[in-house]
Amino acid sequence: MTTSLPPVVLDRLTPALGARVDGIDLNEVRTREDGALLRAALAEHKVLVFPGQSLTPTAHRDFAAALGEITPAHPIVPGLDADHPEIYVLDSRDGGKSPVWHTDVTFMPRPPLGSVLRAVSLPPNGGDTLWTDLEAAYRSLSPVLRELADKLTALHDGRADFESYLRDRLGGEGSTWEGERVRSLEPVVHPVVRVHPETGRRSLFVNPGFTTRLLEVSESESRSLLGIFFAAIGRPEFTVRHRWADGDVVVWDNRSTAHYAVDDYGDVERVMHRVTLRGDVPVGV
Fold it and tell me: Where is the TauD/TfdA-like domain (predicted)?
């Protein structure tokens, strides 16, 4: 493998997950060979923070494309503009807040591999993002409960967040996702425990944002078990918190993490741009 990138320095952020990446200008990451080095670090650390970058929307998209195949901005919400249909705009004044643990787009059959988030306009205080290690959450369960979780599947449903947007603002015509125009949001089924396609490690692949029901148990059992799983996901010792600064870019592995955007900045505008990478159909144990 050949690359023109200078040596990068990885500084682990917590024992659980995350690394700060120094010594690299993301404007120079343009080939899949360059991206492969960072993809390997991503699988290991799950969250990579690139501080103080200077990316235009086009450079943001091109960097993401070096990491993998990029998707449209979102299955429902259109992209930034005609030149950047891959960039999803998260504007706090237009519903772009996510103060709940979630993994991106798990309400589709093939959720993204990862996300590349760039700070565009930040409040003077607050607006941090937290990530949690879903592999650590799985390992924290008792052996008996892990064995049960390995056998379960769950419904993931995006209608509460996006159905009214699809109907009222888009007239029922969403984006093209995996080659098909999205006109409805039927719940999808994913394994509760996902096997990472690159590392082979197991993660709890449920999240409070989109997971609504376990299928192999009763409704009351589902509520109780999801409560246990969600509590494991939210344990502070499995998390890392990033305080954004101008130009920061964070890349995370959507197959082994969930994240939470802290809504503590009132009515001040916060704008982030996100590009997602095409993923695999989740595979269970």
Answer: 12-276
Q: Sketch out the chain's domains with CATH numbers.
A: 9-277 (3.60.130.10)
The long-range contacts involving 206-209, CB below 8 angstroms and separated by at least 24 positions, are 206/154, 206/230, 206/233, 207/101, 207/102, 207/103, 207/106, 207/233, 207/258, 208/100, 208/101, 208/102, 208/233, 209/98, 209/100, 209/101, 209/102, 209/103, 209/106, 209/161, 209/258
Q: Token pair of 271, please?
A: 């704008």
- Model confidence pLDDT, tens digit, residues 42-94: 999 999 999 999 999 999 999 999 999 999 999 999 999 999 999 999 999 99
Strand partners of residue 118: 249, 273
Question: Catalytic residue positions?
Answer: 102, 104, 259, 274
Output the pTM of the full model: 0.95
